Amino acid sequence: MKKTNIALIGLLMGMATFTNAQTVKSPNGNIAVTFSLTGNGVPTYEMTYKGKTVVKPSHLGLELAKDKHASKGLEETSLMDGFQKTNTKTTTFDETWKPVWGETATIRNHYNELEVDLNQPSSKRNIVIRFRVYDDGMGLRYEFPLQPELNYFVIKDEHTQFAMAGDHTAWWLPGDYDTQEQETQESKLSEIRSRFHDAVNWNNSSVSVFSDTGVQTSLQMKSKDGLYINIHEAACADYATMHLNLDDKNMVFESWLTPDATGMKGFMQTPCETPWRTVMVSDDARDMLSSNLILNLNEPCKLEDTSWIHPTKYCGVWWEMIAGGKSWAYTDEFSSVKLGLTDYAHAKPNGHHPANTANVKKYIDFAAENGLQQVLVEGWNIGWEDWFGHWKDYVFDFVTPYPDFDLKGLNEYAHSKGVKLMMHHETSSSTQNYERHMEEAYNLMNKYGYDAVKTGYVGDIIPRGDHHYSQSMNKHYLYVIKEAAKHHIMVNGHEATRPTGLCRTYPNLVGNESARGTEYEAFGGNDPNHTVILPFTRLQGGPMDYTPGILETQLSTWCNNKSWVHTTLVGQLALYLTMYSPLQMAADLPENYKKYNDAFQFIKDVACDWDDSRYLEAEPARYVTVARKAKGTNNWFIGGKTGLQPHQSIVKLDFLDKGRKYEATIYADAKDADFEKNPKAYTITKRTVKKGDVLKLNEVRGGGFAISVKAL
Q: In this structure, are strands 137-144 and 276-282 parallel, antiparallel, or unpaired?
């Protein structure tokens, strides 16, 4: 690993030695961030890209709450103005690091940094504002050194501003403290207020949490002059998740933190720091998708041994429950009583509980026959008869199986087939119950050879009154990841907070949901644009367990569900490339894959860990085309996905090795395919290709293509 850390400008003492404004530029010089103190000592920054304004002068600061436990004279005051500079320092940093898994084998972390040390004479308090400027964007954060006048403090609000230079087109989700399972809205910034309530109703969101112009991050925008701008955050651990509140008259976003049950936004103790507030920018949409800004702003891996962490392709009983309406519960006899194992032993099975020994063996056989590493089983454990909607503290114990689930026998059967089972822990959002059972549950997983768990947080948070994205919940999610790592367990968190790159520091966090996934195709469907905006928004912070691969797009062919998948069949194949994740599910039923066995071949072949990735075409909510090189091989896989508009993709094979021939298997939409009228029309062709060849592929509405390119 190559590292440099060179001080360019030494510490300067005293206000008289400073000029008011200081600028730090990206390594290539395209991005410039300028800091100054304006007015009554208000910290202010601005940002440009190739001379164009990205962020107009914007204020920084935090509003502190009065701590009722503080001694007299130590009640909190605001850290928003009245500052003086005491020191500054500019450095550069350049390293190349290797992710445990990822889109590329190596990642370069190259930035120039400006540290600004500030003192507030009225309170005798000190803060540091740190800027890191990369070729594709910048991050800033607040740091609070250990000091006599600032030890414990309470954040009432954070007031980080992002003043936009125009009425940009934005792709946004309405603000919500508890869910991102919504469809992205597209509008001008000035239209967010008029669209907000329709968006909330459309997405069935229960709360307009702070204002009718509040949105979630990652927020993707495009300016009239062709700049792509993205606002998000990185390394959110012991802190509340950030939303953005828009002053739509002046086009100024301001940070808005998720409160806890007390209404406060953060309880802090120095020394400490906030997460990074990030702004990505480019005049090429592909740079948004290839950026590693969020990962680079996180700390390096803290796990000494990562040999047990591995990308995984899996299947499971999930889709027949989600789409087919089958039950997580073993019995329907009891609905409001607490059942013990003896009660279950004498209960009458409901006959539609898929997490049973015989059915799970079928999935194990299917996985073994088709090269899938694991089988996820939901509904295996007692408690599902009365688990949701009652704010119950104690629902699951995470160790006791239903009578029809042979825990020991199924694990032995799976291992005999070279397959592992994937554990499911639905917490019903009772964090204290999960934490009290966690050690025993993880010990059980170790006993039977489970090495991955899908966690769930459906429902209102317990302790009651808290929110999914609060400081305390973010600490809980990280606690789960750390404890799982001690047991060599990988974590796939559902209904948890949105990712901010912590998978670099704890790479056993192999996946998250934190967005509207494939399950909604069984509840009325997702807009075809949905999967070509998520790479620009949700996926900026880390991979998503989107659960693709539904080849039988018309659900009524196998169950009593009138919903249908809003992509073509080939569009589902493309998602294995365009929706990056080291954890990929073959989500459809085994019998449906048998119906389309020739198309299923791509799912069997495609990798989920990569040495190289090249984004070839991109436009938010319109289309994404990417080529990826499978880890440790000379084989490439290419995927293209489009939204509501057809697209002709021109794929230049410039990334192939010179002098080598490849066999390309091309899975494409048929000429008459359409996600509504003819979703399952596709073609499969083979041809020999080489470096420099050009492929032209027509993607229909809601369609796509997938190509496996194997070295000969």
A: antiparallel
Q: Summarize pLDDT for 4-14 with one digit per residue, the tens.
A: 343 333 333 23
pLDDT single digits (tens) 181-196: 999 999 999 999 988 8
* Residue position matching structure tokens 């709360």: 207
Separation CA 607–CA 586 (nearest Å):
12
Q: Rounded to whole angstroms, how far apart are CA atoms 218 and 210?
A: 18
Q: State the Cα–Cα distance between residues 117 and 522, nearest whole angstrom.
A: 53
Domain count, the chain: 1
Which DSSP string corresponds to 481-541?
A: HHHHHHTT-EEEESSSPPP-STTTT-TTEEEE--S--GGGGGTT---TTGGGTGGGTGGGG
Distance (Å, rounded) from C-alpha 48 to C-alpha 33? 7
Containing 669, the helix (H) or strand (E) segment is strand 661-669
> Of 7-11, 262-266, 384-388, which gets the smallest average pLDDT?
7-11
Tell me what pLDDT residue 70 has.
53
Strands 161-164 and 52-59: antiparallel
User: CA 380, 399, 306 angle in degrees (round to 5)?
Assistant: 95
- pLDDT value at residue 196: 81
- pLDDT one-digit tens code per residue, 662-711: 999 999 999 999 999 999 999 999 999 999 999 999 999 999 999 999 99
> For 181, which DSSP code?
-
Task: Single out the residue of 480, 477, 479, 459 nearest to residue 469, CA to CA.
Answer: 477
Range 431-438 average pLDDT: 96
Residue at 563 is within a domain? no
Q: How many whole angstroms separate alpha carbon 687 and alpha carbon 679?
A: 25
Q: What are the CA-CA distances from residue 646 to residues 425, 576, 698, 700 (Å)?
A: 41, 20, 7, 4
- Tokens for 285, please give them: 């949409």
Q: What are phi and psi of 472, to 5 degrees?
A: -65, -35
Of residues 711, 548, 534, 509, the one with CA closest to residue 622: 534
Nearest 5°: the CA angle 506, 509, 511 is: 150
What pLDDT, on a 0 to 100 scale, did the predictor assign at position 17? 33
Q: Is 119 helix (H, G, I), strand (E, B) or coil?
A: strand
pLDDT level of residue 202 (50, 70, 90 thresholds):
low
Please give the pLDDT value at position 337: 55
pLDDT at 1 over 80: no
Predicted pLDDT of residue 4: 39
CATH number at residue 163: 2.70.98.10
Q: Is residue 622 part of a domain?
A: no
Q: Is 697 a domain residue?
A: no
Catalytic residues: 519
Instruction: Concatenate the DSSP letters of all residues of 277-319 into one string.
Output: EEEEEESSHHHHHH--HHHHTSPPP--S--TT---EEEEETHH
Q: What pLDDT, on a 0 to 100 scale, did the predictor assign at position 8?
A: 36
- Whether 113 is covered by a domain: the verdict is yes
Host domain of residue 256 = 3-296
**What pLDDT is stored for residue 154 in this prediction?**
95
> What is the SS3 string spanning 326-395?
CCCCCECCCCCCCCCHHHHHHCCECCCCCCCHHHHHHHHHHHHHHCCCEEECCCCECCHHHCCCCCCCCC
Closest by CA to 568, choosing from 685, 698, 696, 708, is 698
